[in-house]
Structures are given as C-alpha cells and as structure tokens.
Amino acid sequence: SFQEAQNSSDLPMFLFTGIPGQEDIYLWISVPFCLMYVISIVGNSVILFIIKTDPSLHEPMYIFLSMLAITDLGLSIATMPTILGVFWFNSREISLNACFLFFIHSLQCIESSVLLLMAFDRYVAICNPLRYASILTLPRAAKMGLLCVLRGMTAMFPLPFLLKRFQYCRANVLSHSYCLHQEVMKMACSDITVNSIYGLFITLVTVGLDSLLILLSYVMILKTALSVASHAECLRALNTCVSHLCAILIFYTPEIGLSVIHRFGKSSSHLPSILLGYVSLLVPPLMNPIVYSVKSKHLLILLSIKSRI
Fold it and tell me: Structure pTM?
C-alpha cells in the first residue's frame, strides 16, 4: 500500500489526483487530453520544421517563435507521462525524485521570458523600425534566448533541494496529476517559510517582472501607433501584435489565477485549481501554434505548400 511504501522508504512518496469523483470515466477524459498532446506536439514540430527549412524565416521574430515552440514541446513532454498515467493506468504513486517539478517550473519560466523577448521584438519593430536590423541581429537574438534558458534553470534549480530537506508525514495527496513546488511544500511537516518566501520571490522576479515589462512594451507600442498620422498604418502596426497578445493572455491568465488560488484560496474544493492547472499546462502548447499559424500569412502559405509536396 501507499502508507507501507512511505514507511519502508526514506524517499517521500506522493499520490497524484486526476479529477475527483470522475474515476469511472477516466478513460473517456483521457481522450481529449491525448488529442491535445498530439496536436501540441505535431503543431509545434511543424512550426519548427517550417522555420528551419525556410531561409526567409531566419529572422529574430521567427527565431523567438521557434524558441516558444521548443518550450511548448518540452512542457508537453514533461507533463504527458504523469497526466496520461493517471487517466490511463491509474498510476498515482510517485517519489519526489521522479517528479518533473524542476522541468515544469523551468519551462514555464522560460516561456514567460520568451514572451518578453517577443514583446521586445514588436517594440523595436514598431517604435524604432529603422534600427530594427542593427538592434536585433541573429547572434544577439540567440544570446537573448540562451539567457532566457539559463535564467529559468538557475531560478528553479534550488527547488528540488529545498523540498528534499523536509520530512513528509502527511497523506501527501496532491491535487494535480503532476508536481508543483507550491503544493508539494505544503505536504511537509517542517517549517516551509523559506520555501514560501523563495517561491514568491521567484514568481515576482520572473513571471511578475516579465508581465510588467511586457505591459510597458505595449504601452510604448500603443503610444507610437497612435501617433502615426494614418489610421490604416496604425491598425497595420497593431495587427502584427495580435498573435503575441493572444499568446500572452493564453499563458498568463491561468498562470496568475493558479498562483493566486494556491497561495490565497481557502475553498474546500480543489476542483477550480485542478481544472485551471490543466488549462495552464495544456492550453498554451496547444493554442500557440494555432494562433501563430492563423495570424501569420507566411506560415500559412508555407504550410499549405509543404502539405501538398
């Protein structure tokens, strides 16, 4: 049993939760989840293939889009085993060492950083178009992407070690089908003040700071666009930002909502946080390729051509 495994091992064990009360239809629930994963992986892979094979897309805007696609692929792959394991095989038990906690949090932080880079790209393109090519060169874009990766991994690196120092003596039943730092730390019998403060600090200096800088970028973009004499040119400039704005809303809305629920929610029902958790992990990788393909005529044309070959 779970309790015997917990007692016979020094490693803390946890139980995943699917959707409480719906255990009889887990197989049916897994069908849309599986479809979402397939669409996410295929969609992001296609975008990467198109950008890699077409030299005309080797420019900063599409380099940042490829970074977003790689991050979404990683997020899908990191969450797929445990979520489908729960719904397909009722595989609920996992040790702390087997959690993909570090990867999930790191990839979400990297995605936030990439969205900030894409906002900076739109800011330079609209507010300083004559210097765009000199400011955002390909080597510089690559270095910025590398910094995003290092930032995300460095910020989240201490989390597994902070959790391993705890003693866990509770039921250790998680409210999701994957591990999150803010939830695992609540299972500890020890003082979690350091983890709570560090987790809040990291959230503020990554997702919080990124969202603030993105907002500032769009304030400057809107100010520049409104100062353009021609109404048509203003709309044309703002239209280039629609895909990115959709990606921002898709990523930040559930992310912020889930963070608020975990830290301040007092409701006895875990259903809102469970559903919002699935949305935050499954919807961005699913929707980003669709949003960018629909809004980018270049990608649509190339996708149509390559599908006929």
Answer: 0.90
